[in-house]
Amino acid sequence: PFGSVPIAEQTVDTAVAELGIACESCHGPAEEHVRVNRNPLRRYAGYGDDDADTTIVQPARLDPARSAEVCGQCHGIWTFRDAADERTANAHGLPYRPGDVLRETRFVAQPKVDGSSDQMRALLAADPEFVRGSFWADGQVRVSGREYNGLIDSPCFADAADPERTMTCLSCHAMHQSAGDPRPTAAWADTHQVDAGREGDGGCAGCHAPIAADVAAHTKHDVDSAGSRCYNCHMPYTSYGLLRAIRSHTVTSPSVQESVEVGRPNACNLCHLDRTLAWTGDWLRAWYGIRPPALEVEERAVAASVLWVLRGDAGLRALAAWHMGWEPAQEASGSGWTVPYLGELLGDPYDAVRYVAAQSLRSLPGLGNLDYDYVAPAAARREAAVDVLRAWRSSPAATERRDARLLYARDGSLDTAAMRRLFDTRDRRPLFLRE
After folding, report:
1. b vs e for 13-37, b when ≥16 Cβ sit within 10 Å of the residue's Cβ?
2. Which distant-in-sequence residues (6+ apart) come within 8 Å of 189 by Cβ?
3. Distance of CA 185 to the CA centre of its chain
4. Which one, out of 129, 195, 197, 333, has a CA that is 20 to 30 A from the CA of 205?
């Protein structure tokens, strides 16, 4: 298990055959495939033939579970079932091959499903931070690169009865750019290899045609706005990795209850950063009949993003900081008022949080050339933060909002006493997110 052997005592002796994601990673052993297809007559006979070439694995032809597992072998949170399996893999390589049943050779962690299993209990006994380092408290994935675990928890996968309407990785992503994709290869890659036509709502509309026929009736937002994009509401940026927020791959609906009980930001308040959880709860009840949960005084009176910045753990602070630089959130909530909160995070004890905060500050007017080094000595970082706040106080942005929920007084000054009270309740437990 992760961390069971001190890093200083760990040794490896590796031999590299191919660097990167090689063909056989997804298509399986290809020796037989290469041998038989050296015959040009066989290759020619295969053109226009709808039957699969049985000498190779094509993930798109596998059933949904096996297809997703091809990606899940790398993009999943798993561990060996026992020490013997680990030793065998270290000596001879991982036994899984595309098309196999992944769970036959690995324990794929699903805290929502197997949180009380013998395997999970043994794993937590050896590595108490295993779940917290990768999942939110309710078992939803919170780190990047592990999207398989999010997919298999999604109703679009777990509850689907029709293979043709079952969401898999290939429902949205293409490992090879489609021949008809008009985008430059770099642009396709920048979308995390989302296939042509799937960048917007196309990945959802195929199954949810009635909603797609009248989007605004479902979303209650202007049809062309960010609030009407399926992904923004049902796959919000609640995972962290690579010094940024990443879309969750567990398809859910916005929930104030989850934000209160689990701490995970809900999609509404990730766009409406200047609004409270109570505000979101009221609209979810009015629009969708969702009963709001009981809220603390601060949750009713203070904007959710402010609570996340001041009270949240390191991962939550990073997500809040990233969204303060997210264009749809800036359009919905404004941006000038976020400067003091991002400035506060320039002094965060976590390097990653400081980096994300600085990047978001650079997205704001007048701060594009912010001179700040997130790994500079503490004194230099403090000086840079003070300079940011000093410049902000003398700018129009300092008085553009006078909202009590943002901890601003009527004269535009910050309620620093209230900020301190919230800051004193911050979740300071050490956090290592295993992206």
Report:
1. eeeeeeeeeeebbbbbeeeebeeee
2. none
3. 23
4. 333
Q: Residues, the chain, total?
A: 435
Q: How many Å apart are CA 183 and CA 271, to the nearest integer?
A: 28
What's the confidence (pLDDT) of residue 21?
Answer: 84
Q: What is the pTM of this model?
A: 0.93
Assess contact for 160 and 64: CB atoms under 8 A.
yes
Longest dimension (CA), the chain: 83
CA separation, residue 426 to residues 8, 243, 312, 433 (Å) = 33, 21, 6, 18
Percent of the chain with pLDDT over 70: 99
103-to-67, 78, 98, 145, 319 alpha-carbon distances in Å: 13, 9, 12, 19, 32
C-alpha closest to that of 239 among 124, 148, 349, 302: 148
- 3-state SS, residue 143: strand
**Is-contact 215 204, C-beta < 8 A?**
no
- CB-facing half-sphere around the CA of 74: CA atoms within 13 A: 11
**Positions of E strands within 202-311:** 239-241, 244-246
Q: Alpha-carbon distance 32 to 54, whole Å?
A: 10
Contact 143, 270 (CB under 8 A): no
Tens of pLDDT, residue by residue over 15-41, are 777 776 889 999 999 999 999 999 988
